[in-house]
Design a protein that fits this description.
The chain folds into 2 domains: 88 residues, Uncharacterised protein YqeY/AIM41, N-terminal domain (Hypothetical Protein Yqey, Chain: A, domain1); 51 residues, Arc Repressor Mutant, subunit A, CATH 1.10.10. By secondary structure, it is mainly α. It is globular. Helices cover 77% and strands 0% of the residues. The protein has 7 helices and no strands.
Length: 149
């Protein structure tokens, strides 16, 4: 994952794509921040799963910002956030649609033996372990509650 981001950064430098270059540098900085935090906690450098979590969080932050800018009648700032989302999303696995996500939730419920809402934490933990970067966990939690209902 790091190599893929690094290669994209070099390509952006060579092509002069300033917007993409800026976003890729921001991604690298976030990964380095996680590496430093991990080092301080005696953990190894961020692995691919952690990098996916970082990228997912960055997308979610930008989606929230874009919505706030749209609500505040600032379309040019919302467009900039959406452009960053597109660049970051290039490094994330394909997002599951609702049908796929609900099927994965059903499988997680079966594999964890969850029988009620009190088991929701186990189901969410399994989903996060298997589908980081592929599923919107905010929406998934509602579907888990619905299925455990």
């Amino acid at each position: 994952m790091r190599e893929k981001i690094s290669d994209a950064l070099k390509t952006s430098m060579k092509s002069g794509d300033k917007a993409r270059l800026s976003t890729l540098r921001m991604i690298n900085a976030a990964i380095q921040d996680r590496d430093i935090a991990n080092r301080g906690a005696g953990k190894p450098a961020a692995d691919d799963d952690e990098i996916l979590q970082i990228l997912s969080k960055m997308v979610k932050q930008r989606q929230e910002s874009a919505k706030a800018f749209e609500d505040g009648n600032r379309p040019e700032l919302a467009a900039a956030e959406n452009a960053e989302i597109a660049i970051i999303s290039d490094f994330l696995p394909r997002q599951m649609d609702e049908t796929e996500a609900k099927a994965a939730i059903g499988e997680a419920i079966r594999s964890t033996g969850a029988s009620g809402v009190r088991d929701m934490g186990k189901v969410m933990a399994e989903l996060k372990a298997k589908y980081t970067g592929q599923m919107d966990f905010g929406r998934a939690s509602g579907w888990v509650k619905e299925q455990l209902g």
